[in-house]
Amino acid sequence: MQHFKAGGSAGFVVDVALFPLDTLKTRIQSQQGFKRAGGFSGVYKGIGPQVICSVPQGALFFLTYESIKYYFTPHVSSTTAPLLHMFAATAGEVVTCLIRVPMEVVKQRRQTSINIKDTSLKIMLDAYKQEGFIKGLYRGYGSTVLREIPFSVIQFPLLEFLKNYYRITFKNNIPLEPYEVATCGALAGSVAAALTTPLDVVKTRIMLADKKKVELKEIGIRSMFMEVYRQKGIRGLFAGFGIRMAWISLGGYIFLVLMTLLKTYVMNIF
């Protein structure tokens, strides 16, 4: 329950504080281009769905991740521990995406819409009416999972390695301070963000694709990947590369500091 409470609370703070960076990244990656998608204006458009889903997302991920680690760590060796961390992170992402994907669909369409009548509620209802619950609100589920699993498989074992290495090498096996854990997390997150940017671009394009592409079945992961590559090459596949790294590394730092503090000092009073 500490992980559930702390993960949800820390996730909420980070998502709201860094939401403008997410908006800018989405607009850079969109089909219509940064300026036509809104540029630097209205960077908090779509904040509603993010606020509503932020707490359950963070809570569910860390509840799943830490629970699997807790129950299985005594049964694995130090050499197989990274595999356990990969499995725990993968399970956490699959569960979290059940909430994340509908929120992402609505949020990203709101972030890139220039029609003032396109509220988040209207976008959600239109997606449901035009394409149905699964095809509309869960469009891009596969591409989101495909992005999140490699991200977590890279980030969390790297995070655990950096924490253990730093503790043993520089701290004489003394537990790390919150800021030290956060520094390891920011470094691990930036590496994972850099390597998975093409998958993030494909996910964004699929969620934002117009109805014509849906009808022609041109929104598959492979077909969208090849379309972006044909149009803009490697540069297109790494659109938003810098801002994504900054967003995730900074967000990861704040998140892990808050989560560690909340688990250690605050949540014990409840």
What coarse outline follows from CA principal-axis ratios?
A: globular
Number of distinct helices: 11
> What is the β-strand count?
0
CATH class: Mainly Alpha
At CATH's second level, what is the architecture? Alpha/alpha barrel
How far from one another are the termini? 10 Å
In the predicted model, the low-confidence regions spanning at least 5 consecutive residues are none
Structural class by SSE content: mainly alpha
Q: What Rg is obtained from the alpha carbons, in whole angstroms?
A: 19 Å
SSE order, as H and E?
A: HHHHHHHHHHH
What is the count of structural domains?
Answer: 1
Range of strand content: under 5%
The CATH topology is what?
Mitochondrial carrier fold
By CATH's scheme, which homologous superfamily applies?
Mitochondrial carrier domain
What helical percentage do the residues reach?
over 70%
Largest sheet: none
Mean pLDDT: 89
